[in-house]
Amino acid sequence: KEGTVTQKLFINNDKTRMESPQGIAITRLDKKVMWMLMPEQKMYMEMPLNPSNVPATSEKYPGELERTLIGKETVDGRMTDKYRIAYTAAGVKTVIFQWFAPDIGMPVKTAAEDGSWMMEYKNIKMGRQPDSLFEIPAGYSKMSMEMPSMDDMPVDVEY
Question: Are the beta carbons of 109 and 124 closer than 8 angstroms?
Fold first, then answer.
């Protein structure tokens, strides 16, 4: 409903890199960390990894309760197995559809059962990805996310 967002996604086992006009997100399951790169500023933020922010690239859905095969469908020229999946996240049960492509071992489309959102991977190219894609580039500075202490805050008190 909000429109289409185009991103590039690179995957190497437990590492992902998602490039969008807003910036670059690198998730590292091996380090349990997510880096948000801001190329224009040559800066990055480091955050603990939130599994719900990791692109869905495996068959099993986090918090999955039930999976029902509905049938086979072609998505972007690729034969897929379409599933109805019930899962829980933050204590809320949700139902989605997933189109899983067995030939590449990942879902190529996921959608809410109520039709409120849909995500589809297109123009998939298989091949080895350079390890450097999943690292912070040289010359980037870490952006601090710490809150200043009260001693550092300017105080303007009127009585």
Answer: no
Half-sphere exposure of 135 (CA within 13 A, CB side): 7
The answer to whether the Cα torsion of 70, 74, 76, 80 is positive or negative is positive
| pLDDT tens readout for residues 97-107 | 999 999 888 88
First to last CA, the chain: 51
Phi, psi of 131 (to 5 degrees): -55, -30
pLDDT tens digits, 39-72: 999 999 998 876 555 556 566 777 789 999 999 9
Closest CA to 68 of 84, 87, 88: 84
Q: Please name the residues in contact with 48: beta carbons below 8 A apart, sequence gap of 6 or more.
A: 32, 33, 34
Q: How many CA atoms lie within 13 A of 9 on its CB side?
A: 19
Instruction: Give the mean pLDDT of the chain.
Output: 83
**Phi and psi angles of residue 139, each rounded to the nearest 5 degrees, phi first:** 90, 0
72 exposed, middle or buried (CB, 10 Å; 0-12, 13-18, 19+)? exposed
80-118 pLDDT, tens digit per residue, is: 999 999 988 788 898 999 999 998 888 888 899 998 888
